């Protein structure tokens, strides 16, 4: 059973959470100057690494807060969690 340690609530079952996708995406403030290809990249292209991946998670059945987690996509294990605004946790596998 996969568990995720919420930074506010502690260790909880993965079913209490919703994934918010890749963390630390650069959001364009002005999109009217983008080409169609740049706009498509902005909307649809995401990293899909095999290994360490920084992700956003929402504790929907708990504190209802967003946080970031570093997950190993190969082993499906959570390596670190940190609150929004905090620096990305550096982990070694
Ligand atoms: Zn929580």
From TrEMBL:
**MF terms in GO:** sarcosine oxidase activity
Q: Where is the signal peptide?
A: none
An example GO biological process term is: tetrahydrofolate metabolic process
InterPro entries (UniProt xref):
SoxD, SoxD_sf
Domain of life, per lineage: Bacteria
Q: Please give the Pfam families that the UniProt record associates with this protein.
A: SoxD (PF04267)
Q: What is this protein called in UniProt? A: Sarcosine oxidase subunit delta
* Source organism of this protein record: Oceanibaculum pacificum
Identify the taxonomic lineage of the organism of origin: Bacteria, Pseudomonadati, Pseudomonadota, Alphaproteobacteria, Rhodospirillales
């Amino acid at each position: 059973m996969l568990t995720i340690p919420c930074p506010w609530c502690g260790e909880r079952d993965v079913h209490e959470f919703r994934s918010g996708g890749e963390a630390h995406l650069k959001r364009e403030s002005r999109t009217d100057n983008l080409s169609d290809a740049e706009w498509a990249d902005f909307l649809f292209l995401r990293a899909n690494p095999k290994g360490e991946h920084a992700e956003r998670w929402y504790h929907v059945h708990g504190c209802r807060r967003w946080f970031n987690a570093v997950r190993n996509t190969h082993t499906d294990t959570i390596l670190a969690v940190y609150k929004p605004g905090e620096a990305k946790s550096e982990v070694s596998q």
